[in-house]
Design goal:
Layout: E1 6-9, H1 12-25, E2 29-30, E3 34-36, E4 41-46, H2 53-60, H3 63-75, E5 80-88, H4 94-107, E6 115-123, H5 128-145, E7 153-156, H6 162-171, E8 174-177, H7 186-194, E9 207-210, H8 214-218, E10 224-226, H9 231-243, H10 246-262
Parallel strand pairs: 1-4, 5-6, 5-8, 6-7, 8-9, 9-10
Antiparallel strand pairs: 2-3, 3-4
Helix pairs in contact: 3-6, 4-5, 4-9, 7-10
Length: 264
């Protein structure tokens, strides 16, 4: 890596780790700008990746997206939607999220009939043990809290089409990401982009985001930051997000959108 002229990392923390490692293991001079070798200087910087607002705008205009928005709005009329889309592996924290949601339903009975979590889990074959654990939690939530008229958790074990994904982000009240370790999480950026209220009556939805994602260090504290292992705090964050006033939502949203539109 030190043969390069420039080494870029997603976030400052990763760049600092790299500089410390060079300094300790190779006993060479590392400054905040980079590493001085005998024959050249290696610039080390953080360059957070972002989304492409232009192409996303075009994708949102497609008729299929608008059709799905209508379908989802009709299906969940009067309900508050918490959405999530993650890979079902050990670092995305799907198990922790479901346990926190279960705690939320147990702790705040007044929200049981009004809230639906839609969790899309793009499954990977090698994590069968995790999939089995997650299935047990899903079954438990279903058997405890589902009624003839209401199902508080919709767990999809397959990915959805991009048009459905954009529709889901547009009609969501909250997006919840509980990764145990991750660089940038661009789902959160796409959610912010889709929450401008252009395509649905839902807008400025709060973002619940794990403090262990790179995105958390870029978004400047305007998200609701959580530690995925602290189920109690995650459950409280869901309640806070659902009860947040319009002014507070808009204030947070405008700050988040500034970041997303700047880091493209």
């Amino acid at each position: 890596m030190l043969g390069a002229n420039l080494v870029g990392f997603q976030i400052k923390e990763y760049a600092q780790h790299f500089l410390q490692t060079c300094s300790r293991l190779l006993v060479i001079e590392a400054t905040s700008e980079g590493v001085q070798l005998e024959d050249h200087f290696v610039n080390v910087t953080s360059l957070p990746i972002g989304i492409d607002p232009g192409s996303l705008s075009v994708a949102r205009e497609e008729a299929e997206v608008h059709e799905w928005i209508k379908v989802i709005q009709e299906r969940y009329r009067g309900k508050r939607l918490i959405v999530a889309r993650d890979k079902l592996d050990h670092v995305r924290g799907v198990r922790q999220k479901l346990l926190a949601y279960e705690l939320f339903l147990n702790k705040y009975p007044e929200w049981r009939e009004k809230t639906v979590m839609i969790q899309v889990a793009t499954s990977t074959t090698e994590h069968s043990e995790l999939a089995a654990t997650v299935s047990l939690i899903v079954t438990r939530i279903d058997s405890t809290h589902s009624t003839l008229a209401h199902q508080p958790l919709v767990f999809l074990k397959q990915d959805i089409a991009f048009s459905q994904y954009l529709a889901l982000l547009s009609v969501a009240d909250v997006l919840m990401i509980t990764s145990l370790r991750e660089g940038m999480n661009l789902t959160s950026h796409e959610f912010i982009f889709c929450q401008d209220g252009k395509d649905s009556d839902k807008k400025h939805g709060p973002l619940i985001l794990s403090e262990f994602t790179g995105s958390a260090s870029v978004l400047g504290g305007h998200e609701l930051s959580v530690n995925p292992w602290d189920y109690q705090k995650c459950a409280e964050a869901i309640k806070t997000a659902l009860e947040m006033g319009d002014q507070e939502k808009e204030r947070r949203y405008n700050n988040l959108r500034d970041v997303v539109m700047h880091h493209t």
